[in-house]
Amino acid sequence: MAIVRQDGADALSLVTLAAKAGVSRPVAYDHFSTRAGLLLALFQRLEAQYVQALHEALATAPPELDATADIMSKAYFNCLANLGPEAPAISAALKGSEEMASQQRAMIDEYVGIMCQALKPFTGLDSKGLRLACIGLLGAAEAIAREQQEGRTKQAAAIAAFSSLIAKSVGK
After folding, report:
1. Alpha-carbon Rg of the chain, whole angstroms?
2. Which residue did the predictor score with more confidence, 69 or 97?
3. d(CA 11, CA 17)
4. Architecture per CATH, 42-170
5. Domain residue ranges of the chain, discontinuous segments joined by +
């Protein structure tokens, strides 16, 4: 992660990793096999941090839609802020990779499942409708995140917008 932070994702290779870690090249290759494997491992680590933060935040949610929406939105955007520019750089470096496409699909499915479980008590939507609403909300969150990352909006505004979208999309 330090290599990506300091020099960008393009500078990360198994050779540079081995050199910076002070291990032999075979150790790096035995552990990750390929550069894509290394990048995917980093991406999975970032994803696991986000899912853990979301679960922890939802565990404190009062049984109200607006409060749950606020917690979900804050967890999403706080996680992006905490991850820094490394996450988009790693994701971009893996674009076009079948492994990454599979991982992103699994991540979306996991996140949508978490959203559905958290929002189910507050909606009149059936399971399929709620799932589709959550998929749409996740797409909206990604678009809002791009706006924030490009400096077009502040984090507080992004959080408020996503929270409002959640509540309005699934509320009874």
Report:
1. 18
2. 69
3. 9
4. Orthogonal Bundle (1.10)
5. 42-170
